[in-house]
Design a protein that fits this description.
single chain; mainly alpha; two-stranded antiparallel sheet; 18 helices; Teicoplanin_resist-assoc; membrane
Length: about 400
Amino acid sequence: MFRTYLLPVEAAVTWFPLVAAVILVPAAVRGYRRRGRAGGWPVLVFYSFVFYLLAALLQTVMPLPADTDDYCTTVHYAAEPQLEPFAFRAAISSAGGGNWSPGVLAGLAPAWTTLLNAVLLLPLGVYLRYHLRQRLLRATFVAFTTSLFFETTQYTGLWFVYACPYRQFNVDDLLLNTAGACVGWFAAGPLIRVLPVNDPERERHRYAGRITLTRRLLAFLTDLAGWLIVWTLATGLLALATSWPTGRHYALPVGAALGLVWFWLLPAVFATTPGKRAVLLRLTRPDGTRAGPLRLTLRAWIVYGPLALAWTALAHHTASLGFPALAGRLLPHLTLLAGVLIWGGPVVAVLLRRDEGAWYERWSSTVNTALLHPREPSVPPAREAAGAHSSHRRVPEAHH
């Protein structure tokens, strides 16, 4: 019997790395915007919450029928919902012959099913109170809604993937799941006194002004992902509106044009990029005043030079730009060398805790500056150097 309940947990362990990878960047961006950092104890709690939700969901849908047609023909217990409240008492009493002693109950499958249904959403109540700081009424509503989602998923045969319901909709499950979540909410009270305090505002005051290598790397990856997504959508829609050969023909020019807008014009005009803005960074002069377009242009063309070279190498490989054969062969190596010189050196400097900043910062006289609040404007009005540090802090950067 317990093998049936362990199977979904094993599946959750298998699937969790993929789920974590998918939500990694959005979760980190939210961390910087809400708490001023992407790490720490709250992150561990969050990912344990994600794993728990995945395991709970799989617990309600697994094991899956191996032969759907045969199952739907021969098994009909789930065809009708069980709508009688507290029917589990009669099931336990019947299975135990009316004997409710602990020794007898320990060997009854209906007793274990009832207990596990009560425990299934108990951790949800703990998370709702400790991690999400929800009051009892709202936590109860969330738990009931979650249980209702599980039950309807079962009754619809995994939302009509299967030809018939293979797990029964049971009103007792709704009651037991919700009651278990309420017990978890109350149990979280003593835990809150011994676990680290979940106070995003206090963390923001402590960490929001720090400009770490991880924060800059996340901004860079967010920009890169955003640009690729917009490019894919633009070329895909172009191909749909015209033809596949037309979309393929214009794919590289459209990507290059979007790259110029994304990595050069946006920072030159707004002193930030979508990725930087997502993690609350902007570009200023070292004294905190606004950097001019020429300085930002110089910085952009240096910092994103390796990307431009990589794009040129790709275009030459796929579209044959007409470069001499030697130049075409050297482009990938030149891209790698530029990446090492522009990005590698500053990264090493940060890791060695050297404070002089990146060389292209000194050339362009621009630095990354932290926004201490999501509503703070990206481009502040020009200020005198003496008062420039009143709303931000910075440390030397590695790249981007």
